[in-house]
């Protein structure tokens, strides 16, 4: 029986760079762009002689990249060895498989799990189109740069690679910066843990203890595959959904970093599951009647690790100045969070005046925003303007930090685009998510104003993506997403 799990991509709205260090918080929104993992047995039945086998087969398929890799998984050491000649290994999925199997064996009925493993593992990974850049295909087809053109592409389209670098490096996939590796790792871990009976993700009510196991294993696999212990906000939002996040202490992964030094993987993973995971997360999502928009400016994306490296170097070389900048950034982040939480509260307490103000403001530029006579609508406008000011402060300090570190956190081209966006009717916020650079920009719009923003972006050669906030994290799907997409495509065909 196939198990399908999915995990969402993310947008880090505040906390770029700061979220790398405790106790700084970041606000991360999960999205409707999801990564899917389909896990099923490779063989229909177990051969009689299988009890003596020391290895089992694993097949990993990525249809969008036209790749298929075969592996042998050692049942004793849980090592994965590719047996097909393809050189296109996927370290994120490989670590996810090893660690999820180790977690299942460390915690649950070994005999039952061995039986399942002896049937082999057939794993397919699929990412929604939103994770990848399809600008070139749209331009080649002569279509306008609009969300409708994106929506006309078949679901789970083939991914094109960037032109090969002259330095002879392997071509890289053009991405939109939604955290595909974290969503993919999380989906594979969740699907495997459920398939092996280690966690049951089928109940409607999400059991935090079960999600915690998915989180610990996905976080470990992702960090080890990356070769560094990152802040982990991308994996956390892939598991739990939109949230305010404070990172875990990096030393919770010290045993995993020592894996392969003679300590069995099961023991390492048992340590990881017992470690003191001290990250903090608080539920968060955008207030009602607000829409998250992402726009792809077509400048080719940025390398987050090298930008993070430059900021760390600057912190070392100028500790006093960098500390001042971080303090101001942290205050601006907290202020924005406070105003957004206030707006969510006002929407609950004074629904009618909240909706009325949002609708009015959605048709006006920010300098014309005003409330009615009553206190509640004045409070809504005051929180809206406060959130805007905080965002302008965040952008100012991020730019200053970029200048000091010698990297384009908010490059000039993005500054012009964001200023233009923030001056449009009904736009509350606009910024560069996460580490900044030339990746997608984000905007948060009020009421029905997003259509106008999409039009203006299109005229500026910016492609609005089909990404929206969806505050839900990892989930079990009822069937293969390709079948679902085909069904809905068939249903939408109107026969005259």
UniProtKB/TrEMBL annotation:
<feature type="domain" description="GHMP kinase N-terminal">
    <location>
        <begin position="175"/>
        <end position="241"/>
    </location>
</feature>
<dbReference type="GO" id="GO:0010142">
    <property type="term" value="P:farnesyl diphosphate biosynthetic process, mevalonate pathway"/>
</dbReference>
<keyword id="KW-0752">Steroid biosynthesis</keyword>
<dbReference type="GO" id="GO:0004631">
    <property type="term" value="F:phosphomevalonate kinase activity"/>
</dbReference>
<dbReference type="InterPro" id="IPR006204">
    <property type="entry name" value="GHMP_kinase_N_dom"/>
</dbReference>
<protein>
    <recommendedName>
        <fullName>phosphomevalonate kinase</fullName>
        <ecNumber>2.7.4.2</ecNumber>
    </recommendedName>
</protein>
<dbReference type="GO" id="GO:0019287">
    <property type="term" value="P:isopentenyl diphosphate biosynthetic process, mevalonate pathway"/>
</dbReference>
<keyword id="KW-0547">Nucleotide-binding</keyword>
<comment type="similarity">
    <text>Belongs to the GHMP kinase family. Mevalonate kinase subfamily.</text>
</comment>
<keyword id="KW-0444">Lipid biosynthesis</keyword>
<dbReference type="InterPro" id="IPR020568">
    <property type="entry name" value="Ribosomal_Su5_D2-typ_SF"/>
</dbReference>
<dbReference type="InterPro" id="IPR016005">
    <property type="entry name" value="Erg8"/>
</dbReference>
<keyword id="KW-0067">ATP-binding</keyword>
<dbReference type="GO" id="GO:0006694">
    <property type="term" value="P:steroid biosynthetic process"/>
</dbReference>
<dbReference type="GO" id="GO:0005777">
    <property type="term" value="C:peroxisome"/>
</dbReference>
<dbReference type="InterPro" id="IPR035102">
    <property type="entry name" value="Phosphomevalonate_kinase"/>
</dbReference>
<dbReference type="GO" id="GO:0005524">
    <property type="term" value="F:ATP binding"/>
</dbReference>
<comment type="pathway">
    <text>Isoprenoid biosynthesis; isopentenyl diphosphate biosynthesis via mevalonate pathway; isopentenyl diphosphate from (R)-mevalonate: step 2/3.</text>
</comment>
<dbReference type="Pfam" id="PF00288">
    <property type="entry name" value="GHMP_kinases_N"/>
</dbReference>
<keyword id="KW-0418">Kinase</keyword>
<dbReference type="InterPro" id="IPR036554">
    <property type="entry name" value="GHMP_kinase_C_sf"/>
</dbReference>
<keyword id="KW-0753">Steroid metabolism</keyword>
<dbReference type="InterPro" id="IPR014721">
    <property type="entry name" value="Ribsml_uS5_D2-typ_fold_subgr"/>
</dbReference>
<keyword id="KW-0443">Lipid metabolism</keyword>
<keyword id="KW-0808">Transferase</keyword>
